[in-house]
Design goal:
Length: 293
Amino acid sequence: MDAASANLRAGWIMLGAVASFAVMDAGLKQLSVQYPAFQVASLRGAASLPLVFAWALWSGGWASLRIRRWSLHLLRGVIGVGMMASFVYALRTLPLSTAYSIFFIAPLAITALSVPLLGEKVGPRRWTAIGIGLVGVLVLLRPRGEGFISVAALAVLAAALGYALSAITVRVLARTDSIQSIMFWLLVMIAGGAGVLAWPDWVPIRAADGGVIALVGVAGALGQYAITEAFRIGEASSIAPLEYTALVWGVLLDIALWGVLPDTVTWLGAAIIVCSGLYLLRRERLHSAAEPP
C-alpha cells in the first residue's frame, strides 16, 4: 500500500474513531446526571476493559501486557483518573460542543509541554500559534458576563492539560512498553482508582442505565482501537486534523439529544482554537520534513 492510499484509509478510520468517542462522551454526559464524576469515570474504564483485554490478547498475547516502567504507568493512571473525572464533571453542565471547543487546546498544550518535559524545540511561529489558541480559550471563557471562568470550563481545561501530559508519557512509554500494555493498564487504573475515590458516595446503578454503560464501554474501546490503528498506518500530520471533526459530532448530538445549539461566542472561540491548531500541525509537518533522516 502506497503512502497516499495508507493516509486515505487511515483518515476514514480516524473519522470513525472520532465518531465513536463522541458517542462515548454523549453516554458519559447522560450518566453524569445520575452518578458522581468519579463513579462515571470508573464505569467508563471498567466497561471498556474486557474488550481491550480481549484485543490485547488477540493481537499480542500475554507478553504484550508486560509492564517495564511501573512508575510511568502509575503516573499516567493518576493523570487518567483526574482527566476523566474532570471531563465528566464538566459534561454535566456544559454542552458537548462547548466542552470540545475548550478541549481542543490539548494539542497546543502538548507542543508547549514538550519543551520542558521532552527537551523538544519549538520555534517562534509555533509559540505564536499556541498564544492565539489561548486567546480562543479566553473567548470561550467569556471575559464578560456570567459565563466567565465557570467551574465546568476550568474542569475541561484541567482535563485537556491531563490529556496533554498523558500523551507525553505515551511518547516515553512507547519506547519500552507495547501499545496493548499502555491501553490496558490505563483502563485498569482508571476503573480501580476512580472506583476507590467514588466508593464513599457510590450510587447504586439503575438497571435502566445498563445499556448506556455498555454503549460507553463499546464506543470507548472501538474508538481507542481505531485511533491507534489510524496513527499506525497513516502519517500523524495528515490525520491529526480530523480530530477537529469532533465539534461536528458534538453539535449534532447536542441538537438531537438535548436541543442545544452553540452560541456565537462558542463558534468564535472554537474557530480561533481550531485554526491555531491546524496551523501548528502544518508547522510541525514542515519542521519534520526539514529535519535530516
